[in-house]
């Protein structure tokens, strides 16, 4: 028997190893701030959802594909959205989040660039019509 095991086997314990459960319970009661004589134990319940909701942005991508398809960014975003939905159905949450993030960035880019294109076109048409009226 080595020196470390002899320290745990003392005459006070009757030659038996110490009761680790008793030590654990005393630690939990002391940790919770209750008195040592209290027998109540507090529990905490954490409800974990079975499925993590990963937005795949398919509807947004389809809208950008049909209406605001600037440089085919809407179509590419739609492809990534479908890949994200496929990964989600398989159970690969990390892959689904990666594809969804890419689809979101592409959707934002398509939306911003398309809105800028519409605004620039409207300004150009108004300025051309205004300047044509001045010279006639």
From TrEMBL:
The chain crosses the membrane at residues 58-80, 110-135. The keyword Membrane applies. It comes from the Eukaryota. One of its GO terms (cellular component) is plasma membrane. It holds the Pfam family CD225. InterPro entries: CD225/Dispanin_fam, IFITM_antiviral_protein. Its main location: membrane. GO terms for biological process: defense response to virus; host-mediated suppression of symbiont invasion; negative regulation of viral genome replication; response to interferon-alpha; response to interferon-beta; response to type II interferon; type I interferon-mediated signaling pathway. Keywords: Lipoprotein, Membrane, Palmitate, Transmembrane, Transmembrane helix. It is found in: Membrane. The keyword Protein transport does not apply. Belongs to the CD225/Dispanin family. This is Interferon-induced transmembrane protein 3. It comes from Mesocricetus auratus (Golden hamster).
